[in-house]
Amino acid sequence: MAKEIDVEAVVTAVKQSRKYGDTSAETIRELAEEAARQHKKPKAAVKAVRSRLHSIMAPYLGDPDYAQEARRLDEAFAAGDAAQIEAVCRDALHAHLSTRERLPILTEFYERIFGVTGKPRSLMDIACGLNPLALRWMGLDLPLDFYAYDIHEPRIDFINHYFQLESLPPLAKVQDVALEPPQKRVDVALFLKEMPRFERNYHGRGRPLLEAVRADFLVVSYPSVSTHGGRNLTSRYREFMYQLIAGYDWPVTELLFEGELVFVLDKRLEIRD
Questions:
Q1: What span, in angstroms and rounded, lies between the C-alpha atoms of 256 and 223?
Q2: Which CATH number do you get for residue 30?
Q3: How far apart are CA 94 and CA 155, in angstroms?
Q4: How far apart are CA 238 and CA 140, in angstroms?
Q5: Which pLDDT value is given to residue 229?
């Protein structure tokens, strides 16, 4: 009888790796348990976990030097230089492909979304990436509660550092929303350009996640153009979205931007206490 793979040993091996050591241990453990069922040798299990993490973490999308950008933020806030603060935030947003693509429409993007939802007093960003650094383009009244979730530990540390500089509570959290959907009750929740990868990596969990989110309005977006080749994806992702929410009585407002297709789901009747 083959010896069972030690799941904790696989978790430790991955956490000690330079590339994926900063990933949520919860996510690594879930993948390690799956790999242990599928592979007979520890090395094969570790390789399988790293391969899955490459798809989930998508390091090819980019990250800034978090320590360097944190120092730049400190200097800009200490100087009280609003233009420099915004410049650092834009640099951080530019470092990640998803938010880089949104930079040309950033102000319009949130004006139109919050024109539908109203200005939130509490906001949630699910699988946030670096999007919380767009706060100064959202046109919101401060203070507010801004919850953010991601599985990359340095990213969450950086976002909380930024929140504190903005005199906001550090409500960003390392959490794999596929394994533990957020339970905070908020006015508006954002899930931006992540659903295609989310369904690819956690097949079948997209619909339950949308149902679990406790927000008056849930904003889900998709890229409307492919990253390579400029292929129009609007019809494809519109069909995909309506399949995901089929059977739910959520009024939908659709907004189309250059490069991004947005669905604003009105969940107020469903989550009313």
A1: 10
A2: 1.10.8
A3: 14
A4: 28
A5: 62
